[in-house]
Write a structure and sequence with these properties.
Number of domains of chain A: 1
Oligomer: homodimer
Shape of chain A: flat
CATH architecture of chain A: Orthogonal Bundle
Largest sheet of chain A: 2 strands, antiparallel
CATH class of chain A: Mainly Alpha
CATH topology of chain A: Arc Repressor Mutant, subunit A
Strand content of chain A: 15-25%
Distance between the termini of chain A: 44 Å
Number of strands of chain A: 4
Helix content of chain A: 40-55%
Largest interface: A-B, 40 and 40 residues
DNA sequence: GGACGGACCTACTTTTTGGTAAGCCCTGTT
DNA sequence: AACAGGGCTTACCAAAAAGTAGGTCCGTCC
């Protein structure tokens, strides 16, 4: 048992995953990993089915956890840019691995993602 | 969007994480990764706070997903043994990574897990 | 024969998470 | 002036996940 910031964790793995639990965090992370800098609406449009409530909520939590950084690139018309922060970048190996794993798994189950991806989206 | 077995996924990463979502699955996986073969009560006793409901529920789902295998090692007194199955073993790199990441993160925040772990449990 | 431990299962409640729909402020466009 | 974005927020509700508190069925041990 590890006590840390008001929560208790079973082990370090528990600590690590506490950062990315939730349906959308890994997806946002992987999106930013791929595109480096993205606006709010770009992220939203790339994650079909996410609601704005969820998106802004997760972005906030991830910012607080230093997984991502938000930069105001213009204030006259208010425009922002999200990118990976240090903690977020540190998760890249997991993103890479999970992506490959998923592609392999899908292939083993009759779906060729790399070949078919133009069909989706 | 990927349609697969009645669910839809945003991308392969989404597919991968669908196997290990839930508070306990990674922890069970990492436990089996460390100990190879464990009985029901050994797993339970190593995951403080897990309820038996949660444990047996997750074990069942993980068995169905071929993350783990259950073997009946004795039926006179009914005894079982859980171990990683092929899909589960394939997650080992994530376990390793997440463990190291967590330890590093804790250290950066003033907790030396490796040094202090005898204090817990 | 009674207590104990292993390996579960079940009904019920609570908590957490996620979804819906609407609205706000600002600016650029027509 | 009206509308279309962009970047959000909020109140309210539904669904899903997890916790609680039991119980069952063996079989071994004292």
């Amino acid at each position: 048992m590890i006590a840390f910031k008001g929560r208790t964790y079973t082990c370090p793995i528990d600590v690590t995953f506490s950062f990315i639990n939730g349906k959308w965090k890994v997806l946002i992370l992987s999106h930013l990993y791929r595109y480096k800098k993205r606006s709010y609406s770009e992220i939203r449009d790339n994650l079909p089915r996410i609601s704005e409530k969820m998106l802004s909520q997760q972005l906030k939590e991830m910012e607080a956890d230093e997984l991502i950084v938000k930069k105001t690139i213009s204030s006259k018309p208010y425009r922002v840019e999200y990118a990976l922060a240090k903690n977020g970048k540190a998760f890249s190996p997991i993103m890479e691995f999970a992506s490959k794993w998923g592609i392999r798994y899908l292939k083993a189950n009759g779906i060729d993602y790399l070949k078919d991806q133009e069909l989706y989206k």
